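Continuing the batch. This is chain 6 of the set; chains 1 through 5 are on the previous pages. Same settings as before, nothing changed between runs. Recording input and output for traceability.
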Amino acid sequence: MSKTYSSLTFDIDIEGLPSSVAEFDELAKREGACLEHAINNYVAHTHLTKVRAAICKTVETETGIPRKTEEREDDKVVYDETEAKFIKRVNVELAKDDESLEEHYIDAIKTAAAAVEVDLTKAVRSAGSSKLAQKWLDKAASVIASGKAEAFAEAKGITLSGDEEDDQQAIGSKIRDITAELQKQALEDAMSI
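Output for chain 6:
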């Protein structure tokens, strides 16, 4: 099977992809390989993102040490440090008082992480799509602002979570994919004349 993916703004055809779970397992030369890959992909690209957010929120609440933020030109406040840098900074600050997250806050951290539910209804973002171009986010914001997000999602077969950023990402990704397909079709039509 062949499938087209976008990479570095180019549409790239990838040949030799399996077209079924059974074929995936056969090509991987072991039963259950497809499920294992799906679970690992979900955990790495979706679930652990939510777990990291929950841990950071818990660390902020428990320690009273806030994560660094900055205000963008559009007045939106965004985090100004990665989760890993935040955790490292908190541990450095706690070490001044002979404390550590592992020693004093591990129960709260584990409770927060365990509270993150597995939700397989959301599409897993593909490699390279974690940062959607601003133009697609802007188009998605227009759809959301017009009150047509749910109708768009239903018509285009995507699931909205109710989380504004996730929904904007999902709608923007779908708009990008539709636009790419239309551009591809237009080029094919022009070449067939």
